[in-house]
Amino acid sequence: MPFIDTDLVPLIQTVRFSLWHYRSTDVLTTITAPGYFSPAAARLRAGDLMVMQAADAMTILPLRANAAVGPGVVLDGAVAPIALTRSVAQTLRMVQAAGAVVSTIILAPLMAGVIMGTAIPVSAQVTGPVSQVVVSLRNAQGVIIPPVQTVLVEQGYVTTTLPTPAVGNGYRIRIEDVNETISATSRSFNILPDLQLILVEEGARLLQEDSSALAQN
């Protein structure tokens, strides 16, 4: 018996996947023969599944390109002819629940220049199910400068300090969760030399911060 289009019913249809149901008095070997579902090729897509009630078996068949079917899985090989079981009601219900969880890391602004020998203060606001983050300092080429710190998130905030590296430009702070799914990177900043000595010119002499003359050795 040829394919009957009205007996092909969608149970689930989404943009990417459909689950079909097809009843027939044909035997399974006839239904799975090449070209049987060709009249429905415009409706059937590769990757869909079909619950098949044939005269001699009940199966789940995978759909391939051009409305071809794969070997599938036989659920029952002793199904009576479909005409004898039309009064049986079958219900298939699938419920899928999904929710979005937003996670973010927002770095507090850093100074454009940090003095050599001091500490670099790092703070950030963290939202979402993040319990700890990894804080690292990177140079202008993106190379990590030890030490790398793992810091706990407390009440949605992270605070720590990093030692200053060598004098230079283009340093950045990077914070990321331990699973590396979200991250934040600061704007570049500079490490400035330690200006412990302030010189003032007075006439022909250079004075130190305490106004005493700078002696020449």
Task: Outline the structure in words.
The protein is mainly beta. The chain folds into 2 domains: 5-84, no CATH class; 104-192, Immunoglobulin-like (Sandwich), CATH 2.60.40.2550. 2% of the residues lie in helices and 41% in strands. It contains 1 helix and 16 strands. The strands form 4 sheets. Strands 7, 9, 10, 12, 13 and 14 form a 6-stranded mixed sheet that branches. A 5-stranded mixed sheet has the order 1-2-3-4-5, with no helix packed on it. A 3-stranded antiparallel sheet has the order 6-8-11, with no helix packed on it. Strand 12 (168-177) and strand 13 (183-185) form a beta hairpin. The longest helix is centred in the N-terminal third of the chain and has 4 residues, at 28-31.
Strand content: 35-45%
Q: Please estimate the helix content.
A: under 10%
Shape: rod-shaped
Would you identify the regions where 5 or more consecutive residues have pLDDT less than 50?
80-86
CATH fold-level assignment of the largest domain = Immunoglobulin-like
The CA-CA distance between the termini, in Å, is: 112 Å
Number of DSSP E strands: 16
Q: Strand count, sense and closure of the main sheet? A: 6 strands, mixed
Mind telling me the C-alpha Rg? 36 Å
What's the CATH architecture of the largest domain? Answer: Sandwich
Q: What is the arithmetic mean of pLDDT?
A: 83
Instruction: Tell me the number of structural domains.
Output: 2
CATH class of the largest domain: Mainly Beta
Order of helices and strands: EEHEEEEEEEEEEEEEE
DSSP helical segment count: 1
Q: Which structural class do the helices and strands define? A: mainly beta
